[in-house]
Specification:
alpha/beta, 36% helix, globular
Length: 245
């Protein structure tokens, strides 16, 4: 929360229309630039839209992106509230029970809202973490207009679903996160067979959620987080803004 308050960038809560009478709360951060910005949709972890997720959105905006972080628990809590209304592990249960079709509809609507803003460009990508990483990979399967997908330690989709992907995908994984990393090699093989771009980095000794838990795993998480973030920014600038080193 301290980082958010100290940020020079403009961040605000918005409520966008996702169709079917569905209104979604989202945290939006605008970059400081004079031209239209490429859009990044941020998909939170299984803990919902936390202050950490909002601060991460702010850091992406610092790199020149217009970032939208929807609260996918919008309307799911008591009295129609979102993440903040859930207690303890109830938030995980609620996330696991979300309807995949609703997730896609809300993601599509977030992209449509952001790219229609005067400060937003037409190209958009997605970055997801943990549960959100898996959703980010699946959205690449579902949305042909998506320009890039960054998957932080999210489980890979079934290989038979990968043929529809058009966006380049970046996967960042902890070497000591076998639940997730064991799903990567079959995906790599199939994406290669399909001639689709899937950049993968597996960080030795790093665990799950290394970007959030940077002080863990005897320094391996910090090393993974530092390289992973730099790789993410470069990947998004290349795919959404056409900038390379």
């Amino acid at each position: 929360m301290t980082a958010l308050k100290a940020s020079p960038r403009h961040g605000e809560w918005v409520k966008y229309d996702a169709g079917q009478g569905d209104k979604v709360d989202a945290w939006v951060v605008y970059p400081e630039r004079s031209d239209k910005a490429p859009v990044v949709i941020l998909i939170h972890e299984i803990f919902g839209l936390t202050d950490w997720a909002r601060a991460t959105a702010d850091q992406l905006a610092a790199e020149g992106f217009l970032v939208v972080a929807p609260d996918f628990l919008s309307g799911k809590g008591e009295g129609g509230a979102g993440t903040a209304s859930f207690k303890g592990d109830d938030v995980r249960t609620a996330i696991r029970n979300l309807d995949p079709a609703e997730l896609k509809r809300r993601l599509d609507a977030a992209a449509a809202w952001a790219t229609s803003q005067s400060a937003g460009g037409k190209k958009y990508g997605v970055v997801g973490f943990c549960w959100g990483g898996g959703v980010a990979f699946n959205w690449a399967i579902q949305q042909p207009e998506l320009g890039a997908s960054v998957v932080y330690y999210g489980v890979s989709p079934k290989t038979e679903t990968l043929s529809t992907i058009k966006a380049p995908v970046l996967g960042l994984y902890g070497g000591d996160d076998a639940r997730v990393t064991t799903t990567v090699p079959p995906t790599q093989e199939e994406m290669k067979r399909l001639a689709k771009r899937y950049d993968v980095k597996i960080y030795d000794g790093a665990g799950h959620a290394f970007l959030r838990q940077q002080n863990g795993m005897n320094g391996a998480n910090l090393k993974a987080a530092t390289d992973g973030w730099a790789t993410t920014v470069a990947f998004l600038k290349e795919t959404l803004a056409g900038k390379t080193k």
